[in-house]
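Last lecture ended with a question: if I hand you only a sequence, what can you say about the shape of the protein? Today we answer it with a concrete record. The protein is Metal-dependent carboxypeptidase. Below, first the input exactly as provided, then the predicted structure, then a couple of comments.
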Amino acid sequence: MSAFDTLMAHARETQALAQVAGRLGWDQETVMPRGAAPQRAEEMAALEGVLHARRTDPRLAEWLAEAEAPDAAGAAQLRLIRRQHERAVKVPARLAAELARVTSRAQGVWAEARAAQDAGAFVPVLAEVVALRREEGAALAQGGDLYDALLQDYEPGTTAAEIEAMFGALGPRLAELRSAVLERPAPAALSGRFDEAAQHALARELAQAFGYDLMRGRIDTAVHPFSAGSGLDVRITTRTDPADPFNCLYSTIHEVGHATYEQNIDAAYLLTPVGQGASMGVHESQSRLYENQLGRSRAFTGWLYGRMREIFGDLGIADEEAFYAAVNRVHRGFIRTESDELQYNLHILMRFDLERALISGDLAAGDLEAAWNDRFGADFGYAPERPSDGFLQDVHWSVGLFGYFPTYTLGNLYAGCLHAAMRRDLPDLDESLGNGDPSPATGWLRETVQRHGGLMEPRDLIAAATGEAPSEIPLLAYLEDKFGHLYGL
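The predicted structure:
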């Protein structure tokens, strides 16, 4: 075989093993017995050791030096393999295995601490995770910024300074819009109790309407909804609340955005570096666009209102327009995943600043709860009432995902750009959405974004899909128009 063919065979085996590791993570968050956590930590560490050895194999450098790409896709494969190898060789095998072991254990500690409202039980293991990620950041940065080094795992080519500039342009206008909205009377919310089995059934219906292939996926429940896997096995989770069916329905649509991205990547890239999403920011653009610009649109909620009345009966909402307002109701709340579309990014801006402080060493894990509560009070005007409403609400830091949070807002920015281009190309989209059929939109995303996988760098992919460089301007225009009309501003 040529050097390129040998390299790709090695990459496919590595990717297959990485999928096995991901499946262990899915199992841990869904059906694994609670008592299995210590053993699972050792299993994850052992598998990470195998993966790290493959990613740092000395032969990779030789193959990369000799390999010639047969086409543009091959060039992208080489780019991604080289990037992964160059990062992996900077991280000691001991550190890679220890990170896998500790974050697996920390995830279970976080879940129990969250359920018990016991912040103190989580702090020691969080301190371990932060210390290990700081060590990893130092190894990767080699004298540069630790947070920037970690950020490359989620949004390659982006720096914290660039994100800070975009967020700086976004934050004040969002806060101003929120203040104007909150001065207006709040629309009515849903009332009543909503059967959880019926919620699951409707969530499954919505998942398929948005293009999720259940022959290559499944829907389970978890404390924190997520998507896992790629290619032919892409799974999602959701959760239910008998008083709030939107939690289940829109969490499902969100995760379907992630899952269909992975399912729709060109089959020729299966189990290769290109056979995954271009970045977490691009991934979030899909999930947020599915959930918000499509799922919370006036046209789609008009259809959903009728469907929910068929299933649940009276919703305590007078008509389709009132239902649209209820779906998009700006409301007081602590939980990021349950936040309305207007305030969501303010949750992310806060987390971005806090995790940068943790990684820089300016904030200790033991001071995080107080720092969170102070910042939340300053940004939102009220303080969390219990740990699960505050810094224990998200799973991310327990599993070491420092650098992940800003990709949610980057995803929203990308989604704003994509939505503007989609509306330009699909002038009759609302007619389909009004019939409960988002397939013209999901088909457009499949062709312009999803099928390419990691073929392009994140910003290049968005620019190619939209014809313009990504910016915050389309998102702000969309939000100001939508909530301006909803609240009569």
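Comments.
1. The longest strand covers residues 233-238.
2. Strands lie at 219-221, 227-230, 233-238.
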